[in-house]
Automatic annotation (TrEMBL):
The lineage of its organism: Eukaryota, Metazoa, Chordata, Craniata, Vertebrata. Residues 43-240 form the Tail specific protease domain. The keyword Protein biosynthesis does not apply. It comes from the Eukaryota. GO terms for biological process: proteolysis. The keyword Thylakoid does not apply. It holds the Pfam family Peptidase_S41. This is Interphotoreceptor retinoid-binding protein. SUPFAM superfamilies: ClpP/crotonase.
Amino acid sequence: PDPGTLASVLTEGVKNTIGDSRVKVTYEPEYVPAVPPAMPDIPPEQLAGMIKATVKVEVLDSNIAYLKIQHIIGEEMAQKVGPLLLEYIWDKVLPTSAMILDFRSAVSGELSGIPYIVSYYTDSEPLIHIDSVYDRPSDITTELWSMPTLLGKRYGTSKPLMILTSKNTLGVAEDVAYCLKNLKRATIVGENTAGGTVKIDKIKVGDTDFYVSVPVAKSINPITGKSWEIDGVAPHVEVPAE
């Protein structure tokens, strides 16, 4: 008689059957499908202010940069506010001798932001095949490659880079961590990540208020031939996230 309880029983049944913790059944009578927001027509300064709210930047003792990121912006947004981000974030951290990227609370992001971030820690040449993402609805595989040119200078390949993770690190941030780990460019410190996905669709069940959330895309790393999805990204150094 209780739809919420039924949804959780169905979710447990599905997880036990197919072993995929990302598939969920929910009961949501008020659910309104989210429409991807168009690029907001607001001044770049205001956009940069919004991004600053999700990024924390400091230079710690021993000249170590600390960069906490909660949302990884996509290519379109980066192009629009890039110069301001360079001034606010990148110019501060560029002269440092090592960097900590804090992804412990990074739970959202855009796929097009992956090559951007990875490219800042790799060389301009040769270009590197970073990731392949297969999208089931369109039946298209997109290859993600490092970028030959970037806004501002690269951090380079020689300075130490550490990425902090938690069990809540999800999706695009997991992809960035997995790529940099397998390129042997970063040391991952913290907890095994959530094992999410790059794209989830929420599908309505018939004429009901029940929905099934299903991963509809898959990331396959060209170095390992595997994905970070479901199992997550294992740290080099395992410690509690806090």
